[in-house]
Write a structure and sequence with these properties.
With 181 residues, the protein is of the alpha+beta class. Helix content is 31%, strand content 30%.
Length: 181
């Protein structure tokens, strides 16, 4: 068997692990870029007031969740977490025609998440988070969403809930998984 110090032993294993991690990070980044590009093409093919539920499902597939709205309308949630930086809400009127398509992970929507708001309302406004982290000793749970701050800064928006499942505080920070280098 042919062995060398560069590939065997602790250094060799560490080098292989680092290369594997880099490859995984590159694959995730490529998938996020591909998702973003595919979403833009899908969005371009849908026109508010014209596109139907069948058109939306053809372009985006099955929604993560369907939210009932007043008057028989429905909102389809299309989640791009954890690798993506967008969550879409597509609203269909009672007649099945698309009335709105919006990307909900925005500073304006984050500003509307205020202390005292119930977790169910946060979930409804922002879609499924990329991560939910309980902190039992503090009696808190943190939900995180990955998003892009214009134009390409990878960020994470976090909402901290108390034991009553109501917002205690919110905040944004650079995405640590994108800023490693």
């Amino acid at each position: 068997m042919n062995t060398s110090p560069a590939t065997d032993g602790p250094r060799g294993r560490r080098a292989r692990r680092i290369l594997g991690l880099l490859g995984g990070a590159l694959a995730c980044a490529a998938a996020a870029v591909a998702l973003s590009g595919c979403d833009n093409q899908r969005i371009d093919r849908l026109e508010e007031g014209v596109a139907t539920e069948a058109d939306v499902r053809r372009e985006f597939g099955e929604p993560e969740r369907v939210w009932p709205e007043a008057g028989g309308a429905r909102t389809f949630e299309y989640n791009r977490q954890p690798a993506g930086a967008r969550n879409y809400m597509v609203t269909l009127g009672a007649d099945g025609t698309m009335t709105a398509l919006r990307q909900v992970l925005t500073p304006q929507n984050f500003a509307a998440i205020v202390p005292g708001m119930p977790a169910a309302e946060v979930r409804r406004r922002l879609g499924k988070p990329m991560r939910i982290a309980p902190f039992p000793l503090k009696q808190e749970t943190v939900w995180d969403w990955r998003y892009l701050e214009t134009p390409t800064t990878a960020m994470v928006f976090s909402v901290t809930f108390g034991p009553d499942e109501r917002v205690l505080r919110t905040g944004s920070a650079p995405d640590p998984e994108q800023s490693r280098g």
